[in-house]
Amino acid sequence: MRCNEDGFWELATTGTDKVAPVWQARGGEELPRLIGKGDHLTLVHNGYLKEMSLYVNGQWVDSIELATPFVATGGVQLGRAFLDDTYREYLSGAVDDVRVYNGAADPELIQKISLQTREQLSL
């Protein structure tokens, strides 16, 4: 997940985390909230369906079909990207309430988590 050149949230992925990969990007219709509570972003990797999906504030934005299973040789990166053998694209903002699940979350669960997160932020 990242903001594209036009400033919209998008799902961007490669088939590997090696140097000079080929990128696929989808989405790009939802602007990040610059003031207030921020956005609840969800990335779902479904290995069975070979797809990655982006949800913004509980709503599905887009999916990318993966031609092959994603092969990662390093850890999960939050707030930055590891591109061409170096860290780049640092997040200008804050990260809160990170969750990693063993399995693909369904749309109903994503909506419930997004609603819970927004309710907690309003307290």
TrEMBL record:
It comes from the Bacteria. InterPro entries: ConA-like_dom_sf. GO terms for molecular function: carbohydrate binding. Keywords: Lectin. This is Concanavalin A-like lectin/glucanase superfamily protein. It comes from Pseudosporangium ferrugineum.
